[in-house]
Specification:
glutathione-dependent formaldehyde- activating enzyme (gfa); disordered C terminus; four-stranded mixed sheet; 11 strands; seven-stranded mixed sheet; mainly beta; single chain
């Protein structure tokens, strides 16, 4: 899944790379992620809406090895299949990130970040599946499926 913090990692981690902190709502689980997100999007697919209980899931994509659990690895709850699943806090239920693209990338839910990332969502995806009661009012591009710029990441 993702790395847990240990002394060897701390010695090999590039100190020049800014790290961001994230955590669940109860504080049982915390993670650290490099501020090197490859893309950020607002997903309106029915799975993301159900997983978040919201109109869409704002997330940022990054290589999975750049995310480490720093507290509460014993409290993690995995929901889904091996190559594509959600990681939640098993105590409070917060959706922390989704593991996607055959375990290569994490889609970090932006709302769980404590620190501010350098990236902002650049598009809305799966807008054909958006909640009927929600109206997109910003000027970001809208895509029926995945945004083309994401595919290169």
């Amino acid at each position: 899944m993702c790395s847990s913090s240990n002394n060897d990692e701390a010695l090999t981690r590039d100190p020049a790379v800014e790290r961001l902190a994230g955590e669940c709502s109860c504080g049982a689980v915390a993670y650290s992620v490099a501020n090197e997100f490859r893309y950020a999007l607002n997903c309106h697919c029915s799975q993301c809406r159900k997983a978040t209980g919201s109109a869409f899931k704002p997330f940022a994509g990054i290589e999975l090895h750049k995310l480490q659990i720093v507290r509460g690895s014993d409290a993690l709850l995995r929901v889904g299949e091996e190559g594509a699943h959600d990681i939640r806090c098993g105590r409070c239920g917060s959706l922390l990130f989704s593991v996607v693209r055959n375990n290569l990338f994490a889609h970090v839910t932006l709302g769980t970040l404590v620190d501010t990332p350098a990236i902002r969502p650049t598009a809305h995806i799966f807008v054909d599946s958006k909640a009927a009661w929600y109206e997109i009012t910003d000027s970001l591009p809208q895509f029926h499926g995945f945004a083309e710029s994401r595919r290169g990441g």
